[in-house]
Automatic annotation (TrEMBL):
GO terms for cellular component: nucleolus. It catalyses: guanosine(27) in tRNA(Tyr) + 2 S-adenosyl-L-methionine = N(2)-dimethylguanosine(27) in tRNA(Tyr) + 2 S-adenosyl-L-homocysteine + 2 H(+). This is tRNA (guanine(27)-N(2))-dimethyltransferase. The gene is Trmt1l. Residues 15-39 have a biased composition (Basic and acidic residues). Residues 15-47 are annotated as: Disordered. It comes from the Eukaryota. GO terms for molecular function: tRNA (guanine) methyltransferase activity; tRNA binding; zinc ion binding. Residues 143-163 form the C2H2-type domain. Keywords: Isopeptide bond, Metal-binding, Methyltransferase, Nucleus, Phosphoprotein, RNA-binding, S-adenosyl-L-methionine, Transferase, tRNA processing, tRNA-binding, Ubl conjugation, Zinc, Zinc-finger. It comes from Vidua macroura.
Length: 708
């Protein structure tokens, strides 16, 4: 073993620095090649010259298997484990060992995998137990940059990140560097090069998330719709990272947009410039930066020019005005709302992507209160609650700048919350928007909810606003006050239809199903009644090579030259749209599984939607929850219809088929919850007298089914 260690040290040319205190405590017979373990579990190694990489650092699992020289007819030992730890075995067992115990727990960096090593490269202090001395082999990782050995995987990841932050990303061994094409990503015909640590989000490094592709497609569709209204428009990607979003805007919309990509990180700015050249785009540097020979000749601007700036997002939004601003910071976006709404132009668009889902989805309620000033709890409609929380924060920020907002789109999915709003300048729109920020009364027993009425007068019994009767039948306080939240509509149907046309035009397949669901949700209708032609929009007009359906008097069909006249036409068109679509979609939704009846099989969701529609209620599916139903039916009627068409799980004395309601209750009527409870109790008493068995649902206990 000592021979192996000495050869390893000679081949790596390791110069180990050991404190004097440790040298004094070292046994006299120990060799200098055996370094002692420091308190930080990291050896201080100096290797500024090229060296051979350790055998635990490989690109592919097949390269690791080649070291073992796998053959079916021979037993082979593990190349990263000593013989006493893992005995020699056949190929299939050794393959599982290498894959599960070495490859899966490796640390990735620039295409290489630093696998865990059990060889005696890193000696551990011996443990003296009685008269025996147990020498323990320590598992460790070999750093690809500085050849240090580190015991824990989390410490190794932090060690590599410190190298990256210092700019030390060159492996110090003699080998062929990984080609840059291994980190090139193509999305929507846009080719970008990402940094080596693109898969691990950090505040100081560029981050590329493939799961946000749907988010980028939705934002592109919104920008394409705005580019059809007026052009050219100045748009800003405030947090560029790799610059893929701004490159998609400039590459597809061409002369309709003037793109500015900003980032405060120098490595990200360098990556953005390289990606611009990779996509054959010219780079126009900010006037505050030094001229490095990358500016456009003679200062001219064309459709293939992208402006790249390196400054704080708040600074660039305070310095200039934009028509379209997209904010996608690391976490919450509330720190940038004031500067975004300060300089955005009238009838411009601001899109916000919030990835702090732990606070928005009520997993960290104290963080939501600190960032958004909003009190929320975990409910069945928590995703819509998160979207309304972000819109309320944007509304207050816009109102401070004497601007109002019109919500065009609100999406809350697994990884992000996206909100797209149009800015309306003036104190009157600001006041109208601020009035739509209200508190929500939420019943914790049955999850009924209602927005608090307008007014400043204090009510003696706020429970009277709730349609349910849980406060009267349950002890203590049964409701909580959530908010302040946005109480207006979450979608603009006309804008969503135009976004769908843009998605079809540019072949954005992932965004099309979601946009269809959003249109149905905005109109509160099912997908089978969905039509791409909205009523009254029969004319077809081509703008920027894109066909957009507009009405005869639509503002988009005759944009007059001049800023004021075009804004007046657009404002009048927006008023007409609000008058035509005065019936907003119902707020919030109900989860069918949450309100299902114990001991009963509920009907299929599509059939249940038909039953609600036949009863005279507006219904639609929702993208927030695959089992959610958005309807204007009160919760009491929702449960009544659900119980009527549910079948018993165990068919005993009951006959098969749906449970029939008493004749006094008509499904089409909107029966208050308290009245429904009284009628059901009266019928239950009559059935008990006549000996007829029935399964009735008590409204006071929303998940309990009493069988008589």
């Amino acid at each position: 073993d000592g021979l192996v260690i000495s050869e390893n040290a000679k081949s790596h040319n390791i110069d180990v620095k050991i404190p004097k205190s440790e040298l004094e405590a070292e046994d006299k017979g120990a060799e200098e090649e055996h370094p002692r373990e420091s308190d930080s579990n990291i050896l201080d190694v100096s290797s500024d010259y090229p060296r051979d990489k350790h055998i635990s650092i490989q690109r592919h699992l097949a390269d690791l298997e080649k070291l073992a020289d796998l053959r079916e007819d021979q037993r082979k030992p593990c190349p990263l484990c000593p013989e006493e730890k893992f005995k020699a075995c056949y190929s299939h067992k050794l393959h599982r060992h290498l894959q599960n115990l070495h490859w899966k727990v490796s640390v990735e960096f620039e295409g290489y995998r630093m696998c865990i090593c059990h060889l005696p490269c890193r000696p551990v202090k011996p443990n003296v137990v009685g008269d025996q001395t147990l020498s323990k082999m320590g598992a460790h990782y070999h750093c690809i940059i500085c050849s240090a050995t580190i015991a824990r995987r989390t410490d190794m990841i932090g060690h590599i990140n410190r190298h990256v932050n210092k700019g030390e990303t060159e492996p110090r061994f003699i080998t062929v560097r990984a080609p840059k094409s291994s980190y090139r990503v193509v999305e929507s015909a846009t080719d970008v090069q990402v940094l080596p640590n693109h898969s691990t989000p950090q505040k100081t490094d560029s981050y590329f998330n493939p799961k946000m592709k749907l988010n980028r497609q939705l934002i592109f569709c919104a920008l394409a719709v705005l580019a059809g209204e007026r052009k050219p428009i100045e748009c800003l990607d405030a947090f560029g990272a790799t610059g893929i979003m701004g490159l998609q805007w400039a590459k597809h919309l061409r002369s309709s947009v003037k793109v500015t990509i900003n980032d405060c990180n120098e490595n990200s700015v360098t990556m953005i410039k390289e990606n611009c050249h990779l996509n054959k785009m010219k780079v126009k540097l900010n006037i505050r930066e030094e001229d490095n020979g990358e500016t456009v000749g003679n200062g001219e601007e064309n459709s293939d020019t992208i402006e790249v700036t390196k400054m704080d997002a708040n600074v660039v939004m305070h310095l200039r005005s934009f028509d379209f601003i997209h904010l996608d910071p690391f976490g919450t976006s509330v720190n940038y709302l004031d500067s975004a709404f300060r300089n955005v132009r009238n009838l411009g668009i601001v899109s916000l992507t919030s990835t702090d889902i732990s606070s928005l989805y009520a997993k960290a309620q104290h963080v939501a209160l600190r960032h958004y000033g909003c009190n929320i709890v975990r409910t069945e409609y928590y995703k819509e609650l998160a979207a309304r929380t972000v819109i309320a924060a944007a509304t207050r920020a816009a109102a401070r700048c004497n601007k109002g907002i019109e919500v065009l789109l609100a999406v809350a999915l697994e990884h992000f919350v996206l909100v797209v709003v149009r800015v309306l300048r003036g104190p009157t729109p600001a006041d109208d928007s601020a009035k739509k920020v209200r508190y929500l009364i939420h019943c914790q027993w049955c999850e009924e909810r209602v927005f608090q009425k307008e007014g400043n007068m204090v009510e003696e019994n706020p429970y009277q606003q709730l349609p349910c009767d849980c406060h009267g039948s349950m002890p203590g306080k049964t409701a909580v006050l959530l908010g302040p939240l946005w109480s207006g509509a979450l979608f603009n149907t006309g804008f969503l239809r135009r976004m769908l046309l843009e998605a079809v035009q540019y072949g954005l397949d992932e965004a099309q199903p979601l946009l269809k669901t959003l249109i149905c949700e905005a109109e509160c209708t099912t997908l089978k009644h969905f039509s791409t032609h909205s009523p009254g929009d029969e004319n077809k007009q081509e703008e920027c090579g894109v066909y957009i359906r507009t009405s005869n008097t639509s503002a988009e069909s005759y944009i007059v030259p001049g800023k004021r006249k075009s804004e007046e036409v657009l404002r009048s068109a927006a008023k007409r749209q609000r008058a035509e679509h005065s019936a907003e979609h119902p707020p919030f939704y109900y989860n069918v599984h949450r309100h299902s009846i114990k001991g009963m099989n509920m009907p299929k969701l599509n059939k249940f939607l038909n039953y609600l529609s036949e009863a005279g209620y507006r219904i639609s599916r929702t993208h927030f929850d695959p089992m959610g139903v958005r309807t204007n039916a009160p919760l009491a009627q929702f449960k009544t219809i659900l119980m009527k068409y549910s079948t018993p799980t165990y068919v005993g004395a009951q006959a098969e088929g749906p449970v029939h309601l008493p004749g006094e209750i008509q499904v089409g009527e909107e029966v208050p919850a308290a009245a429904a409870v009284k009628v059901e109790e009266a019928e239950l008493a009559e059935d008990a007298k006549s000996g007829v068995t029935a399964a009735m649902f008590t409204e006071s206990y929303p998940t309990h089914c009493a069988a008589e």
